[in-house]
Write a structure and sequence with these properties.
This protein is 1% helix and 38% strand. By secondary structure, the chain is an all-beta fold. It has 2 domains: 3-192; 266-347, Immunoglobulin-like (Sandwich), CATH 2.60.40. The protein has a 7-stranded parallel sheet with strand order 1-4-8-12-16-20-24, with no helix packed on it. The longest helix has 5 residues, at 178-182.
Length: 350
């Protein structure tokens, strides 16, 4: 149950060196958290096994194949589980930035025991598979066709290797684009809402990778329960978390927390919250103008529009009835003039 954070791990002049590793028997290597580390120019993949470990908000850059090995070693993160009675399940790999690796950024290898119920979410993967010994050029995610790889989740990742139409996934012996990968969801591989677009990073220096205001990764992630990004910004600033290590802060992305109102504009927390089917949402506008009030699910998909018209200044209250929706986290996003605010809501159907 260790926390490993704030480290720079590099091995540019070492011929065989990995970044991080978790490995162990059932419940013997678990609940460890690796975050806000920089792993740069190592020559061996980081090995993630054990159970219930969390790897988030790390920068993994420039992993190169070892010159002393004939086979590929430069995957950024691999789940493999080799060794007798070792386990690899319920690990979470979230909101990392992985780039410029010789091999795939994230790899599921068929060797060893089961790799199951692991989560790959909100990662930005760019320019990987650039010098592959395995022949996997431009591949960002590799999933071997093996029955030891079961029930793993691939949600809301951005994978990009130069264009939006070339394969970036090697999935069970098939080269796929992200659009094709999203259609592969089964009970074996659960896949949803991944994108294949340039993440549009603003690079002010070699260690800062902010999202440009036009980045497709803004509000495109899924809520994984994290509170802060790599830079200490509060998550989240829009109607859904952002993909990658940076939560975009802009003039129209106003935090849903500790934000009571700006110049007479406000959105109150819905009441009751949590709610069972019906809740009340109140807001105030100090100037006449166009108002939009909408509800989104945790994937950033709009599920209901409550207000979408011109209104006079004043206080308003709207009832929201979650007919047809399942229990879970939802977001109420309010916009009027230059004011935007988002509140988290919890629906609990009894």
């Amino acid at each position: 149950m260790d926390k490993i954070f704030g480290n720079l791990i590099t091995a540019e002049n070492v011929t065989y060196q990995r970044g991080i590793c978790t490995d162990g028997f059932e419940n013997k290597c678990r609940d460890n958290e690796f975050f806000n580390n920089i792993i740069k120019n190592t020559t061996v993949r980081s090995q993630i096994n054990g159970n219930n470990n969390w790897i988030h908000h790390n920068i993994i850059d420039g992993i190169k194949n070892s010159p002393v090995k004939s086979y590929a070693t430069a995957q950024a993160i691999e789940l493999q589980c080799y060794g007798t009675d070792l386990v690899c399940h319920d690990n979470k790999i979230d909101n990392n930035l992985i780039m410029n690796c010789d091999e795939a950024a994230i790899s599921f290898n068929g060797n060893g025991g089961p790799k199951e119920n692991n989560f790959i979410r909100n990662n930005i993967i760019i320019n990987c598979g650039r010098n592959s010994k395995s022949g996997l050029e431009n591949i960002g995610i590799y999933i071997e066709d093996d029955n030891s790889i079961i029930n793993n989740y691939f949600y809301n990742n951005c994978v990009f290797s130069g264009d939006e139409n070339s394969p970036v996934i090697f999935h069970r012996n098939n080269y796929l684009t992200i659009a094709q990968f999203n259609n592969q969801s089964t009970t074996v591989d659960i896949v949803s809402n991944n994108i294949q677009k340039d993440p549009l990073l603003e690079i002010s220096n070699s260690l800062n990778f902010y999202l440009n205001e036009n980045s497709p990764c803004i509000d495109a992630g899924v809520d994984v329960g994290l509170m802060h990004d790599y830079y200490g910004n509060e998550i989240f600033k829009g109607y859904a978390p952002d993909i990658g290590i940076h939560e975009y802060i802009g003039t129209t992305n106003i935090s849903s927390k500790n934000q009571s109102g700006v110049n007479g504009f406000s959105l109150d927390q819905n009441y009751p919250n949590p709610f069972n089917l019906t809740t009340q949402i109140s807001y105030q506008i100090s100037k006449d103008g166009y108002v939009n009030l909408a509800i989104y699910n945790s994937f950033g998909q709009m599920v209901s529009t409550l207000v979408n018209n011109y209104q006079r200044s004043g206080k308003y209250s709207v009832k929201f009835t979650a007919t047809g929706l399942s229990s879970g986290v939802y977001f109420c996003k309010f916009k009027s003039r230059s004011f935007t605010k988002t509140n988290k809501m919890l629906l609990f159907i009894r």
